Automatic annotation (TrEMBL):
InterPro entries the UniProt entry points to: Flavdoxin-like, Flavodoxin/NO_synth, Flavoprotein-like_sf
Spans through the membrane: 66-89
One Pfam family per UniProt: Flavodoxin_1
Domain Flavodoxin-like as annotated: residue spans: 109-244
Signal peptide boundaries: none
Superkingdom of origin organism: Bacteria
Protein name in the entry: Flavodoxin domain-containing protein
Entry GO terms, CC: cytosol
Record-level Gene Ontology MF annotations: flavin adenine dinucleotide binding; FMN binding; sulfite reductase (NADPH) activity
Cross-referenced SUPFAM superfamilies: Flavoproteins (SSF52218)
Organism of this sequence: Flavobacterium columnare
């Protein structure tokens, strides 16, 4: 007796000719049946390669189980999520890609940025632009490109933290580079960390960089480490005010200067509307 669950396919005769037969394909064999009297003409076992091919088809189409079909659906949605999120991250990085008008050798103020998804780079770019507008020879690069800065008098370190206090992708080589490349003169430094206080290692990588710089003979810290929680504009403007008090190169203290286009529209609409 053949169970219906074993049947994979039944091919009907194309014509009424005696040479045409029913072809019954089961999971483990293929049966040729006479269309007139129902007799079995031949029975051939399916090779292991055909079985593997059928198994592969079952796994890829989800036809073996509704549960497996649901799992495949989740897998497809996950792939789409990673594609879209990857595109968004890449877009942010390209959107805030820094532009330098001075060469590194001639630059006096260096901004080193560690950013995983582009948010920290956004703040750094805004600072860089303001320096350039004031005629300061500013140069902005990812932290991985740390090297000797022959004409620099100040280096700003702006970095986020990835995972459990680890470096963002574009800052993973900074620590070894600082140990390798010793600056030839004293340089002022300041570190700003971006992160979320919901995580136990809040701004962990920025703290690690701060400790490392304190061991270097060439560094002159002009500001203590400042942390920015969840891109808080209050935290950021506190650092801006501290910077303005010691640097002699003032930055804007207007919140709208550092907002993205959409956030700026929201701010202007709900906070600066006439009363």
């Amino acid at each position: 007796m053949i169970l219906l669950s074993e049947v994979q396919k039944l091919e009907f005769p194309f014509t009424d000719e005696v040479e045409e037969h029913f072809i019954l394909k089961l999971k483990d064999r293929e049966i040729l049946i006479n269309q007139w009297d129902g007799s079995i003409l031949s029975e051939v076992s399916i090779s292991k390669w055909i079985k593997l091919e059928n198994l592969s088809l079952d796994l890829h189409t989800g036809r073996i189980s509704i549960i497996w079909s649901f799992i495949l659906l989740l897998a497809v949605l996950s792939i789409l999520f990673f594609i879209i999120s990857g595109f968004v991250i890449s877009y942010k990085r390209l959107r805030y890609k820094p532009t330098n008008i001075y060469t590194l050798e001639k630059s006096e103020l260096i901004i080193l940025v560690g950013s995983e998804n582009g948010n920290t780079m956004k703040f750094a770019n805004t600072v860089h632009t303001q320096f350039l507008e004031q005629g300061v020879k500013s140069f902005i690069i990812p932290m991985n490109q740390y090297q000797i800065f022959p004409n620099a008098h100040t280096i700003l370190f702006l970095t986020s933290t990835y995972g459990e206090g680890e470096a963002p992708d574009n800052a993973r080589y900074l620590e070894q580079s600082i140990r390798k490349y010793k600056q030839s003169k004293n340089i002022q430094t300041a570190v700003v960390g971006f992160g979320s206080s919901q995580y136990p290692n809040f701004c962990g990588y920025a703290k690690k960089i701060e400790r490392l710089l304190e061991t270097q003979a060439w560094t002159q810290k002009i500001l203590d480490l400042h942390t920015i929680n969840d891109q808080s504009m209050t935290d950021w403007l506190n650092w801006v005010n501290s910077w303005n008090a010691v640097s002699g190169i003032p930055l804007s203290t207007l919140e709208t200067t550092y907002l993205t286009k959409n956030k700026k529209k929201y701010f202007l609409k709900y906070y600066l509307k006439p009363k």
